[in-house]
Amino acid sequence: MGKTAAKKCIDILLLLLFFIELGGMFFPSLLHELLGFCLLALVLVHNAINNQFYKNFFRGTNNTHRTANKISIILFGVSLLILAVSGIALSPDLLANAHFAENLNWRSIHLGAAIAALILLFTHLLLHAGRYIHGRRFVIAAGAVFVLAAAGIFGMPYLDRWFHQVHVDREKIVQGEKVPFRGRVLTVYFSRVGNTDFPPNVDAVSGASVMKDKETIIGNAEMIAAMAHNAAGGEIYAIRTEKTYPAGYIDTTKEGKKEIAAGERPAIREPFPAAEEYDVIILVYPLWWNTMPMAVESFLERYDLSGKTILPIVTHGSGGAGDSLSALRRATNATVASDCLTIYSSDIPASRQAIADYLKKYAVK
């Protein structure tokens, strides 16, 4: 096989491996890591074979096309480096003992680097193709690249949210910095877990608001509440409804929408915690249809929190806090903090420090 044929084979393998790795959430983590090492090895081989690019980097005239190509290649290399570093930090198998800087949200960094690498790869391919195709065919190719890049930008977070299995070590990730408060603290949360009869084999994906510690199902809001409780101390209370929500996430969202449309306040199981014993309420809830769940509103309307301060923490799939703070202020006579902490569902396992930082703004100075 000649050098040119070898280069083409390596380039084809690189493209195949790159796109396979983008779908890593569909494969076992060990396979994803092994293919990642293969991809990086091929990248090194590719650069060694194309070393003329680096030898001629500062030679010749830098027109617009050449400059753009140089920038895209350099940024693509940087994104691959970030992918490698974040991959090591996240590794559950081959490099499980090499974790570092665990306060960083490596999962979001990894996903962001993958999206950047995808865009830069398409940019590089388009610039390279521009040497050989022109006119209408180039416009069509550019349009195709734009569509594919847009699909990657919006599609990868969606796939990650709905197909990435979330398995955690609860005892480990809830630990972190302590935040002392003046007065007693109560952490209150509403989660699907505890209000739904889940089958044992339920998929633990962040988009469905559940994760697993071995075989134990944990709700997203429940995990955030555990982190906040570990940081602030005090007591913890789960809002439990008398009704049971459907096990299917879509069915639950439909039920939640009906409650909001009808203004239905689900009945809350008693007993309630003694309000007079607490000064600060950390309230954790998911964003449902751009507001807080009616079960939370039902709890607040029945529970006298006058003279208390509420610190809201909202978990969401893309809507932030939505209009939930306005609904919260209408539903309670407590003082609601001027701001809230919002946590994207896929970021929850790495949110412990963000929770502590938010609580410190309202703790003892």
UniProtKB/TrEMBL annotation:
PANTHER family: EXPORTED PROTEIN-RELATED, FLAVODOXIN-LIKE DOMAIN-CONTAINING PROTEIN. The chain crosses the membrane at residues 12-28, 34-50, 71-89, 109-127, 139-159. It comes from Schwartzia succinivorans DSM 10502. Keywords: Membrane, Transmembrane, Transmembrane helix. Residues 219-337 form the Flavodoxin-like domain. This is Flavodoxin-like domain-containing protein. InterPro entries: Flavodoxin/NO_synth, Flavoprotein-like_sf. SUPFAM superfamilies: Flavoproteins (SSF52218). Gene3D superfamilies: 3.40.50.360. GO terms for molecular function: FMN binding; oxidoreductase activity, acting on NAD(P)H. The lineage of its organism: Bacteria, Bacillati, Bacillota, Negativicutes, Selenomonadales. It comes from the Bacteria.
